[in-house]
Write a structure and sequence with these properties.
The structure holds two protein chains of two kinds. Chain A is an alpha+beta fold. Chain A is built from five helices and five strands; from the N terminus they run E-E-H-E-E-E-H-H-H-H. Chain A has a five-stranded mixed sheet, sandwiched between helices. By secondary structure, chain B is an alpha+beta fold. Chain B folds into three domains: 47 residues, Uridine Diphospho-n-acetylenolpyruvylglucosamine Reductase, domain 2, CATH 3.30.43; 116 residues, Uridine Diphospho-n-acetylenolpyruvylglucosamine Reductase, domain 3 (2-Layer Sandwich), CATH 3.30.465; 109 residues, Enolase-like, domain 1. The chains are: A alpha+beta, B alpha+beta. Bound molecules: flavin-adenine dinucleotide and FE2/S2 (inorganic) cluster (2 copies).
Amino acid sequence: MSNRVKTDRIVITAKINGDERTFLADERDSLLEALRERIGLTGAKEGCNNGNCGACAVLLNGVLVNSCCVMAAEIEGAELTTVEGLAGPEGLHPLQQAFLEEAALQCGICTPGFLMASKALLDENPHPTEHDARFWLAGNLCRCTGYDKIIRAVLKAADQMGSNGR
Amino acid sequence: MQPVKYKRATSVAEAVSLLQGGGEFARPLAGGTDVIVQARERRRDIDLFVDIKHIPELMAISHDANGVTIGAAVPLHLVYGDAKIVSQWPAVTEAAHVIGGTAIQGRATLGGNLCNSSPAADSIPAMMVLDAVAHIAGPNGKRDVSVREFCTAPGRNVLALGEFVVSISLPKPPAGSGGAWQRFIPRNEMDIAVVNAGVWVQLDGANVTDARFALGAVAPTPIMVPAAAEALIGKPLSDATIAAAGDAAKAAAKPIDDMRGSVKQRKHLAKVLTERTLRHAIERARGQA
Ligand SMILES: Cc1cc2nc3c(=O)[nH]c(=O)nc-3n(C[C@H](O)[C@H](O)[C@H](O)COP(=O)(O)OP(=O)(O)OC[C@H]3O[C@@H](n4cnc5c(N)ncnc54)[C@H](O)[C@@H]3O)c2cc1C
Ligand code: FES
Ligand code: FES
């Protein structure tokens, strides 16, 4: 197959987790590859590499996307939030705290994706019903924990964030 | 990933020239939810992505007296996030809502769903029954093609070298009409349709004055089912005429056996889904849903 072209090293500048960053990548890198292999942000995980599992989910200009289905070159000039940007200076994000308290993870491979997808859900809909949360998270797969605990954690975080006004 | 180059176009003319220059191995990059995976898995031979998301026309939704024009690269979450599109063309937003999950809908587009030209593409039957038109730009200028005539074979369509879809228009639905879309999949979300169906009807009291039916995943391309429309037009609505439309859909379906469903199941589903979707479209035409 295609070895007709040679891809270039490219310089990408984007705001990642609040910091303006400039890094080198290969033109053919997916965003997931660039995050993990070029800039050492290994929070986003590779589960399927084809858009089905959500382990690689990040927020691109505030919108939930699977980073394995984005080219790194596409983020030039964009704003990106990965799981590394979730906790604030005051500690864990309420979603992260709720996942710990509700034991909503086992091996943890799916967790960064679930956290980012849940963050996107609560940004858009601060008081989701259980059905809202299950439908929204349908693109995130977990092979160990079971979805009930994850949904419980998300709803708990929503409750807590509602009462703290966060 | 195989070596694939990336170029960002900022105007329609620039995209045409990049696509033309790239030749047969150049591809527009919209949401990338089909094409990035295809390139990685080497299911398509691609050596240049032309990113079309920085072209203003491709990202705009514009409503006017004739209907709506949706930029081909507008992500689905903005399509079903547009209250006017939801209220006037719910068949399209019903499909947009179930294409992949949330993270897919943050990127995937109607243009990409159309141009990937899968026989099972969810939005295509909805657009077909709503008389959608694809506005195409290319080396020889602009042309319009009805979405009904767009797909030619699995993964193939009418686009020539250097051509791409700029936007898709949906004409304003006439009074007393209603459209709907449904699919059947084994789970509730995140799967490819075993069969999908789009229906549009126009009523005058209890009589059907016009109707259009489309089915997906029952032939090499999404198909129109004129025989189902003939079974209804000019007739009063009744369980018998609705069943006749369903029978016509079953007869028109020419599916294959695969891991998602058998010929027998798909033909059965063509009937059941057509009737269900028709009933929903009728409720909408009557202003009840
Ligand atoms: C996990 C997952 C679940 C999915 N679920 C569904 C589903 O339920 N139903 C469904 O129908 N599909 C589904 N898909 C397939 C895909 O998401 C849709 O077909 C989507 O609409 C493609 O849009 P895109 O913008 O991402 O296209 P892209 O991947 O960017 O492009 C698709 C093809 O069209 C071409 N193209 C894109 N835009 C244009 C244009 N404007 N002019 C000319 N050519 C163009 C590209 O070159 C490419 O060949 C799924 C995919 C994944 C990964
Ligand atoms: S690794 Fe991206 S969706 Fe699975
Ligand atoms: S905790 Fe292991 S995949 Fe979810």
